[in-house]
Design goal:
- The chain has a single domain, classed as Spore Coat Polysaccharide Biosynthesis Protein SpsA, Chain A, CATH 3.90.550.
- Helices cover 30% and strands 24% of the residues.
- The protein is built from 7 helices and 11 strands.
- A 7-stranded mixed β-sheet has the order 5-4-1-6-10-7-11, sandwiched between helices.
- Helix 5 crosses helix 6.
- The protein is globular, with a radius of gyration of 18 Å.
Length: 245
């Protein structure tokens, strides 16, 4: 069984989320914050040996005060992120233990996962070295400028990337080492730049990413239909006293 480190970026600014009382990743969803729904899907899995949550520097005090018990109980490490998503993941990647075989990156704002989906993506990544979830574009795609249609784009062969995205640790380290100043929108893009193949696993529309208040309402319906993980196990063996570096 491959040993997996999970990185959950939760350092986004939530600029499109209309509720200014909290960022989307900290919004309440079925009595728990969105990010907790996302992270708990990986907790208590025998293959997951390390979980790192990346937060923004400005959220550190709030996060520690509000979620300290969750951090301890779930055995999490917390890392402060950077200016861009790539910077945040890179900081977390530096904390991944060298004995990990795979690194899984999953958006903290994607709360609607199932154990079966995680099993599948981990298995494909172990076989191929790089795997992502994605769904084919179903609607008509318009390129727009100044609220005017510039052209209609063929959707043939177009897929919308999701997370989890899972890679061999050495491959992802190499991809980030050669990143330079490139601001990739996901980890797969950096791996693609190496000339490496990334396997696409068909995902689900239920695996939605919270970006707006409407997405949150949809997620509330989705989580009701998904099985809840069991969180009654003792403190994780990979938890430590150095979790706040």
């Amino acid at each position: 069984m491959a040993k997996v480190a999970v990185i959950l970026p939760a350092a986004g600014k939530s600029q499109r989320f209309s509720n200014q009382s909290y960022k989307k990743q900290f919004a309440p969803l079925a009595d728990r914050a969105v990010w907790i729904h996302a992270v708990e899907k990986f907790v208590n899995r025998p293959d997951v040996k390390q979980i790192i949550v990346v937060i923004d520097h400005e959220d550190r005090e709030m996060f520690q005060m509000r979620y300290s018990s969750n951090i301890i109980f779930l055995g999490l490490e917390v890392v402060e992120g950077g200016a861009e998503r790539c910077d945040s993941v890179e900081k977390a990647l530096a904390r991944v233990r060298p004995d990990m075989d795979l690194v899984c990156v999953h958006d903290a704002a994607r709360p609607c996962l199932t154990e079966m989906w995680i099993d599948e993506i981990f298995g494909v990544a172990e076989r191929t070295g790089a795997a992502i979830y994605a769904i084919p574009i179903a609607g008509t795609i318009k390129r727009v400028k100044d609220q005017k249609v510039v052209e209609t784009v063929s959707r043939e062969g177009l897929w919308e990337a999701q997370t989890p995205q899972v890679f061999r640790r050495e491959l992802l380290l190499k991809a980030y080492a050669q990143r330079g100043g490139f601001n990739a929108t996901d980890e797969a893009q950096l791996v693609e730049r190496l000339g490496e193949k990334v396997t696409v696993v068909p995902g689900s529309p239920l695996n939605l990413k919270i970006a707006t208040a409407n997405d949150l309402r949809l997620a509330e319906q989705a989580v009701k239909s998904l099985p809840r993980p069991k969180l009654n196990a003792p403190l994780h063996p990979f938890a430590d006293d150095d979790m706040w570096k």
